[in-house]
Design brief:
Blueprint lengths: L5 H13 L11 H15 L3 H14 L4 H14 L2 H14 L6 H11 L3 H13 L7 H14 L3 H14 L4 H25 L4 H13 L3 H14 L6 H11 L6 H15 L4 H13 L3 H14 L4 H13 L3 H14 L4 H13 L3 H20 L23
Helix pairs in contact: 1-4, 2-3, 3-4, 4-5, 5-6, 6-7, 6-8, 7-8, 8-9, 9-10, 11-12, 12-13, 13-14, 14-15, 15-16, 15-17, 16-17, 17-18, 17-19, 18-19, 19-20
């Protein structure tokens, strides 16, 4: 497994770092010169097979020059011949222990072959003191892989977090981080099923997994099993309500979901998410006083709840109390300046207050965000959504 294009750059730089063998006139033979020139020409033209043949012959004629073995090892690495590269790198280090970066290249070969214990010292050194800032990424990915292969998941996760900090937009880093966390989660769930095969924890985990994958009937069944075992378990009625809202809507869906959210609040009056969902249902069916009560409960228990702030602001606008809506929408925008819904609702507050410049400013920002959103290619991830998102409805002027 070769991690991305940066390591190709590392290989090219390594050719320069390793240097070329030097000979005095008395040491140099015509044959050595021939193979050296053939190898260098083949490398320049990216003919790795020909370069390997030339350097193999050169290493036989000149077995005491470390750079020859190191460059041969590097050629093998670029060819994916990791098992052949290892003895070449070892020979180079034996002849010249301080040869730059050869220990890192040797470690990369071991990692590629699954020799994780042997790979760790070189990879750890390379990640702490990379030969080049760009190639730290490739070394880090191999280090993460080696830790994971040795079941040292804590250290693998630490490397993954550092890579995500260093390369936050790198798709390869994100993929391997997600895969690592997915593997750890899978192994943890397998262990849970083994040590507690009929526990509330296993049924709750299964319900959440089904819900995140859109298998709502299966999720509902698992959550019902949890409640049969522990009727007062917090959070389960909330999850059932979310499942009801996620399924294709029927005439009684909102009533069924509302019942679950209100049952959750009976068990845990501080559950801001359940209060928010109840408030949102009441807002949509026009029972604004009840909606206001539930939204206020949500923001009192979770002051940084963006969606609840927007919901409460919308209700207060509908109740003709724009001045009271103002601080809630200001807070929502402070929490997330990129939410088009907040800016549109803010424009309605300014309109009601007779502030035409403020209204125009918020409408301009709303339109900018909406245009950007329409141009982005939205990909819905498989995940468990915690609450219903605030969306624009019929109040938007077309």
């Amino acid at each position: 497994m070769n991690f991305g294009n940066q390591f190709s750059k590392f290989c090219c730089l390594s050719l320069l770092w390793l240097g070329s063998p030097t000979y005095t006139e008395s040491q140099q033979t015509a044959l050595q010169e021939r193979y050296f020139q053939e190898g260098e020409k083949a490398l320049a033209e990216k003919r790795l097979a020909d370069a390997a043949k030339a350097y193999e012959k050169l290493s036989q004629l000149d077995p005491k020059t470390a750079e020859v073995h190191a460059k041969l090892g590097l050629i093998y690495y670029q060819q994916g011949r990791f098992a052949d590269a290892i003895p070449a790198f070892r020979q180079a280090l034996q002849l010249k222990p301080g040869l730059p970066n050869v220990d890192i290249l040797l470690a990369m070969c071991h990692s590629e072959l699954g020799h994780y214990t042997e790979a760790l010292p070189g990879l750890e050194k390379g990640f702490r003191h990379p030969p080049d800032a760009d190639v730290r990424r490739s070394i880090g990915l191999q280090l993460q892989r080696s830790y994971a292969g040795l079941q040292r998941h804590q250290q693998a996760a630490e490397v993954a977090l550092e890579l995500n900090h260093l390369y936050p937009e790198d798709p390869e880093v994100l993929y391997h981080t997600g895969r690592l966390y997915g593997d750890v989660a899978y192994q943890t769930m397998r262990k849970l099923s083994r040590v507690a095969p009929d526990s509330v924890w296993l049924h709750q985990a299964a319900g959440e997994a089904h819900e995140s994958q859109g298998h709502y009937d299966l999720a509902s069944g698992e959550y019902r099993k949890v409640l049969s075992m522990d009727p007062r378990r917090p959070g389960i009625h909330f999850r059932l309500g979310r499942v009801v809202l996620a399924r294709p809507q029927e005439g009684t869906s909102q009533d069924e979901a509302l019942k679950e959210f209100e049952q959750e609040l009976q068990l845990d009056p501080t559950n801001a998410a359940a209060a928010y969902e109840a408030g949102e249902i009441y807002r949509k069916i026009g029972q604004l006083d009840k909606a206001q009560r539930y939204f206020r409960t949500a923001v009192e228990n979770y002051p940084d709840f963006e969606e609840a702030r927007i919901g409460l602001g919308r209700v207060l606008i509908a109740l003709k109390e724009p001045q009271k809506a103002l601080p809630h929408l200001e807070k929502a925008i402070l929490l997330n300046p990129e939410n088009e819904v907040s800016h549109y609702q803010f424009s309605l507050v300014y309109k009601a207050l007779g502030n035409a410049p403020g209204q125009q400013k918020e409408l301009t920002e709303f339109q900018r965000l909406r245009n950007e959103k329409s141009q982005r290619r939205e990909v819905a991830p498989f995940k468990l959504l915690e609450v219903t998102k605030q969306e624009l409805e019929s109040e938007v002027a077309q």
